[in-house]
Predict the 3D structure of the following.
Amino acid sequence: MDELIKELKIKLIDTLNLMDVTPDDIDENAQFVGGELGIDSIDVLEMVVMIEKDYQVTINNKEIGEKVFSTLTALAEYINENSSRFSP
Amino acid sequence: MGEVKTALGQDDSLPRTHQLAIQAAGQAMSGCTLPPDAVILGTTTGGILTTETLLAKGEKRPEYYQYHGLTSVCEEIARRHGCTGPALTVSTACSSSAAAIKIALEMLRRGEAVRVLAGGVDSLCRLTYFGFNSLQLVDPEGSRPLDKNRQGMSVAEGAAMLLLTVEKTDTIIAEVLGAGLSCDAYHAAAPHPQGEGAYQAMRAALNDAGLSPADIGYIALHGTGTLDNDLAEARAVNKLFDFAPPRLSSLKGAMGHSLGAAGAMAAVIAALIVSRDIVPANTRCQKPDPALCLTPLTTPLNQPVAAVLSNSFGFGGNNASLIITPPGRFTCPERPAASRAWTIIGSSCLTGAGNKDKTMAALRLDQPIAGALSLAEISADLPARAVRRLKRLPRIALALAAAAHDDSAASNPKAVFMGTGWGALSETYDFLKRLRETEEQFPSPTDFVGSVHNGPASQIAIRYNSTGANITTSGGDYSFEQALLSADLSAADSEQPILIIGADEGHPELSPLFDKSISHSQNHPNTLVDGGGALCLTKNSKARGTTISPAFYQSADKTNVIAALLRSLDGPEALRADYGLLLAGIPASCREQGEAQLARFTALSGFNAPIIDYRRLTGEFATASAVATVMAVDFLEKGTIPPSLAGQGRSSLKGKGVLLLGLGRFITAVRIKAP
């Protein structure tokens, strides 16, 4: 999980062009949307595309989306549970 | 809903959007033998469906892309119907054609036209289809506006046109009594959650028409079927009508959402409603969402309606509401005549030399100004976090707006008008490239939102909380002049400051394909140049400074157009007395034509003060005239023209003004005068 969270932080910075942020600046348990990073609905959708592309995990419903994008940890857990990459 | 199935004719040389527009314009103009005085269309993507195919094939010949630009649709319609007046293109996303009707209405009220063909068009294309899908705004079961289980819109296509006239003929179907514009100034794609901008647009339309909410008999909702739009619009409607709105429905359950065409489509249906006493139902709403507190019509009615309120809201919070009534049902309020000149209280430009100070210093030192700054240079004064998602054009526009606003030392601008020849090319290119590379699997929602022509102007509105009108025009080499004209028509009485921007980005792949002037450039052949200019304007009578007013906008095809231009400038004598400098804009793609027009102008007017062929300085980009305007402001402030440009002994302006002429396919004139 820690590896995945670390990887997600790098992808997050890259995908959302957070040029002034380093992975260490990101608190994986902080509120993801509307928090300190200034992430909004378009960013979430850009992340959805990235997650589908890189992890083959689809998030296409508002309720699941809200849960999954509550924190970076929640996102990592969801990917971990649903991606074939992490299946035994 | 969805694809137009009617045969569009055999003319495959034209993109689908143009063909749709031709069909609708033909219907609207049938029965009218006189040409319209102006054509004003709203569209979001122009000929992009064809462009997408060409790009995928790797087509590199510019002539194949001649119908890409938004303006090519409007100019094609104007040409076919013999219109030699303005061909204006409004691109404010899904409110484009409703905003176009507002500008047409003001042009008619002003007495600048007797007949205007106004409307909108958009064809289905990969950009919008996959773009809205990437935003998860498309309902897989088809749009169900206002329904409890709605999941989004249906992307559709279409064209709708209205022939508007001030003549009292016996064939009048309906009246456009009023129209209102507003901007959410909230988010690039999501509506203001309380529908504040939607409320303001409806309120402005009522004021414009001189009606109260009680006069409205039916509301044609924007009602796209997305969760956020329908909720925000419901809140706005309930606020305006105090939870007791008249009959209402969304037409988009039946027709889908034809984006730039949707506002005109609703206006045409509103005209049918008031002329045929039919009230349409809210198709495909099974169970109204109780959270909306609205009761849409479930079956159509046969009843007279005194006034229809029709809503159109777009990306960037660009809102427009129209009020359409039976002919003669209401009397429109008297309007004071607008004074023509705006006072310039701030200005800025960006060129290859840098900002306004650097550009003007370079001009006085006879150094080149054409070029393209790096993205880092453009963004130097912009907050990094706020622009992280923005590519080249929105950054140029924001930098220009910030500098002009700071220069004005005035309060925040109320309204924003932006002209751009080609829009956000980086976002458009990147979106289509990734779409192709991922075999249509992973389009970027960020690039889609950024690709709309009105993206930059809505970013400016967000930055300055500019909740008034927010209009983006795209008229090729005359885009800045169109923005100025639109501002003059739709913000005529603005005591508060407004911003007018003209900007384009040079894109290494797309600009040489789209803008023919780049390959024709003599001084800077095949060099990528870009930039733009911005003005902060007011009509506050206490403001002192240089003034600006649009004076002329006609097609070069008009008979004796140069003589008409001279007449509009009060004749040769007044021209020679009023102006100490002529800034001539001759796009390289029409150099021969433009030089002949200029020669005719000087021969007819006897104008013998300095003439600057400014594109030889700025290089070739569609909104170079915005830079020229800022040059004029600077020269007037200093009272002199740089000698290297004016010629020795001719650099004093002697208190006279500067005339900005646009030449080539259209002839435009803008008066810029010293205080």
